[in-house]
UniProtKB/TrEMBL annotation:
InterPro entries: DUF4959 (IPR032527), DUF5000 (IPR032164), DUF5126 (IPR033431), Galactose-bd-like_sf (IPR008979)
Domain of life: Bacteria
Name of the featured protein: F5/8 type C domain-containing protein
Domain DUF4959: 19-122
Residue ranges of domain DUF5126 in the record: 124-224
Organism name: Pedobacter ginsengisoli
Segments forming domain DUF5000: 249-386
Gene3D superfamilies documented for this protein: Galactose-binding domain-like
Length: 389
């Protein structure tokens, strides 16, 4: 009977459609008869989710299928998929409890079928898997938080500490979908500090809080106005208005920059004087804007330190204190950038030095490879941190 009604209405629409408004057409399509129910549901439980495969009713005016379930917090969540699909995935479960999910078929007139109830029992949610992997250690000027996110879900890692009023409150939130990474929380005093770390997903589910007490390692940001380039015989020739001094001018924009000339070859290096002997903790360099993870920005580098550079430009009296390769968060090809790439570039590329590095005054920045595998090196700025002794 429903099929006959639908055919009759379709015929009427065919003859009168040219004179009808869209609102009138919508009304005529609604036959007032609900589609048949969803049947033969099969559940595949997933991490924090469940995939439900089903059989659609034969109704010709079927438009979509929707699923409804209620979270432990009382929120009703809805998932919709087109009638072209025979499955859907319900997400956002914060635990492994059993949940009732109701499936409905909906036609073009928004008539809703009788529900088919199925029970899902999701596996451990992604945010809880991340929580199990979290490790926290003292870092220079703060702490370092590492984690694994095997499902690459969008999560937030929230770090808590006492504020100036003694309230245990969030001081940093790291949003990520990276499979594995770490981040640092800086600019903290070198005193025993209580920290908390919990994980939150995009549905508002939260893990328990990891509580730990750590003492950030002492460091200060070095005075860039005391830093200057040192010209040694083997240093890379400059070009394209580049200068070492621009690396210490405090300008992260597209003003001055360091840029080598046409005669430069890989590997290549330049030398600078920090103006003070210091036990280094970390350094950060900033890529040139508009060329993130591309062209002449350094990709793989070595950092050398000395207190008495050889005047002939050789590596005599130099000690290798770090080797580092920059990683593009998204892994996308050159010229393509994700939000994570842009955020990482804006934060700068940081090298954390080993605790046993010697006190040095001079730095040699040696580039082994740039992002285009070419022979130029070009970037904007350098910051240095350490403990002057």
């Amino acid at each position: 009977m429903k099929r006959l009604i639908y055919i009759l209405f379709a015929g009427v629409i065919f003859f009168i459609a040219p004179g009808c408004k869209q609102t009138e057409l919508t009304t005529l399509v609604s036959d007032g008869v609900a589609p048949g129910p969803i049947t033969n549901a099969v559940v595949e439980n997933l991490s924090g989710a469940a995939k439900i495969t089903y059989k659609l009713p034969p109704d010709q005016d079927l438009l979509y299928v929707k699923a409804l379930y209620t979270s432990k917090q009382g929120a009703v969540r809805e998932t919709k998929v087109s009638y072209y699909n025979n499955n859907l995935t319900v997400e956002g479960f914060g635990d492994t409890s059993a949940y009732e999910v109701k499936l409905y078929a909906v036609d073009r007139g928004e008539n809703v079928s009788q529900p088919l109830s199925v029970t899902v029992k999701p596996k451990k949610a992604p945010f809880l898997i991340v929580r199990d992997s979290v490790k926290v250690v003292s870092d220079f000027g703060g702490i370092s938080v590492s984690f694994k996110n095997s499902t690459e879900n969008n999560i937030a890692i929230v770090v808590l500490a006492n504020d100036s009023l003694g309230n245990f409150t969030p001081i940093n939130t790291n949003y990520t979908n990276l499979k594995q990474s770490s981040f640092s929380v800086r600019d903290l005093k070198s005193v025993d500090t209580k920290f908390g770390i919990y994980i939150r997903d995009r549905w508002g589910n939260m893990s328990d809080t990891l509580i730990t007490t750590l003492k950030p390692l002492f460091e200060v940001k070095l005075d860039r106005t005391k830093m200057k380039g040192v010209s040694l015989p083997t240093d890379a020739p400059l070009g394209y208005s580049g200068a070492i001094s621009y690396l210490f001018d405090g300008d992260l924009g597209n003003g001055g920059y360091y840029h080598t000339g046409d005669a430069a070859k890989m590997p290549q290096w330049f030398t600078y004087d920090m103006g003070v002997s210091v036990k280094l903790s970390r350094m950060t360099w900033f890529m040139r804007q508009g060329f993130y993870f591309n062209l002449h920005n350094p990709r793989k580098v070595e950092i050398w330190g000395s207190n008495n550079p050889s005047p002939d430009g050789s590596f005599n009296n130099w000690e290798l204190i770090a080797t580092h390769e920059q990683i593009k968060p998204s892994g996308l090809p050159n010229g393509q950038l994700s939000n994570a790439d842009n955020e990482a570039a804006a934060a700068g590329e940081t090298i954390t030095f080993p605790l046993n590095v010697p006190k040095v005054r001079y730095i040699r920045f040696k580039t082994l490879r740039n992002w285009s595998d070419g022979t130029y090196v070009n970037f904007n700025e350098i910051y240095m941190w350490g403990a002057p002794e």
